[in-house]
Amino acid sequence: xxxxxxxxxxxxxxxxxxxxITNANLISVTTSEIIENASITTxxxxxxxxxxxxxxxxxxxxxxxxxIDAKNNYVMPGFIESHIHIESSLLNVREFGKLEVMHGVTTxxxxxxxxxxxxxxxxxxxxxxxxxHALPRIYFEVPSCVPAIDIxxxxxxxxxxxxxxxxxxxxxxxxxxxxxxxxDFESVLQGEKEMLERIEIAKNNxxxxxxxxxxxxxxxxxxxLIAGISSDHESSILEEALEKVxxxxxxxxxxxSAWKNLSELSKLITSYKIDxxxxxxxxxxxxxxxxxxxxxxxxxxxxxIELGIDPIKAIQMVTINPAEHLRIDDKIGxxxxxxxxxxxxxxxxxxxxxxxxxxxxxxxxxxGKIVKNIDDNFIYPKYASNTINLNKFNEEDLLIKINDNxxxxxxxxxxxxxxxxxxxxxxxxxxxxxxFIDSDEERNIMxxxxxxxxxxxxxxxxxxxxxxxxERGAIAQTIAHDTHNLIIAGYDVKDMITASKxxxxxxxxxxxxxxxxxxxxxxLPIAGLINNSSYGEVYREVKQLEESxxxxxxxxxxxxxxxxxxxxxxxxxxxxxxxxxxxxxxxxIIDPISRAQ
Length: 597
Description:
Blueprint: H1 4-11, E1 19-28, E2 33-43, E3 46-51, E4 66-69, E5 74-77, E6 79-84, H2 93-102, E7 105-110, H3 113-119, H4 121-131, E8 137-142, H5 164-170, E9 176-182, H6 185-189, H7 193-204, E10 208-211, H8 218-226, E11 231-232, H9 238-246, E12 250-254, H10 262-265, H11 267-270, E13 279-282, H12 288-293, H13 297-306, H14 311-316, H15 320-325, E14 343-346, E15 354-359, E16 362-366, E17 369-370, E18 408-416, E19 423-433, E20 436-437, E21 445-451, E22 460-466, E23 474-477, E24 486-490, H16 493-505, E25 509-514, E26 517-523, H17 535-551, H18 556-565, E27 574-577, E28 580-583, E29 588-590
Parallel strand pairs: 1-4, 1-5, 6-7, 7-8, 8-9, 9-10, 11-12, 12-13, 18-22
Antiparallel strand pairs: 1-2, 2-3, 5-14, 14-15, 15-16, 16-17, 18-19, 19-20, 21-22, 21-24, 23-24, 23-25, 25-26, 27-28, 28-29
């Protein structure tokens, strides 16, 4: 920030403004007012004055002052995305940033635990470095759970560990704003030393601590809060979210590509009539297709409005609310003197359509075009594209063998829930063919396998998943939260093998195969998570995958995103990792065959 005295002189007109935004219908998120015909003066990227329509701006105009006519648009603070995993967009940080500013997002809070799981703290630092070349302001939160669950518990195995020494070192970066979502809530509740120590590290550095607390309530929730965790983005049930808000938590009302909780959680405002100031709109995980076709926080605001939430309240949920939560409302989230001049324009208030984005007083996006060039001089190192290390495997390795002479067995099956990060455990009868349990297309029950791709350990977890939505074929991908092993689902094991071969040859990605033929592929060579091309090129590749899956009876959102989360052993109820089938609430590996027949 510039010198305070300079800013004070600029506020008085002694130093002339660099830019003045005129004819603005200013949204005051502090008072929920619309201030008509306001003018906003800026100096060195900072707001210095807010003038009402009776005040004369001429005192602030110098020979270098740029006048930006808002043309009676509604002018809002730049939007803040409080919880996002950039990796889920399948884009690099720079290309993701381009799409962000097109949709009014001027500040991004990213949790890079996906690339952290694959490349460790080096991966986090790569994202930090790349963010310096991006258009929006990007802060990061140090991943708190890499891997997602302590490997000593034997439920999963990942590539890297970010330990407490790594966390201390990462906390020194000016780009770090908090400790990322504390997913291993069981370690918190059990008071495990390592987990409590990393929470203390965040507290000692005066950083926020983000939560991940699906279905936690009563004494468990209270214990989690006492630890110092301040937010949750996993609330999907109204009563669950209400209890958390009443106990002081910020609730991130999530609406991403696959996890859609906004319709339910909006009732906190429309039905329960609670104060909305501890509610924040986030995407969490959003892919490039949705970013291009629908938008981001502008889309979430519009959906909130459609659900009956007042437009200014919806805008508060992406501006002042997150800024206060993150303890940076003295810098962003409000159009007021001393804050960064981060502003977005929309002709309509009841349906936001961003036509201008200003960051630190500079127009970066205007009427459909990015008008500011970015420094594109960032190159990922070779090691970031060399993350596939697994043993060879064959068809029988992906199947569950039955030694008994049976024709059918009862199997513990992972049941996916459309639009939800949760799964259910179901027990269903499956046929046995040639000594192996078989899938069932009619009931949409597929084979599923997770293979260690980091250590060539030969670990393969095997089971069955229902309700992914694909009616035929197989899909393989190196996106498998959070350890990102190779995950494969399909009806025909031959298709599963073929799909995995295409992914391995590409150094990571997503491949869909049917009857031995490659139907579509998205190559993700950077850590097996990211395509380093332009967002337009990646969009076209992912869109083709989406369309091929749609023909097969599914969609990208319900398959690619859901499949990627099927392996995360910290969200109830049943998951699968390279170690086997995980009962999350019991914290143990269970047999894919149900013995209670």
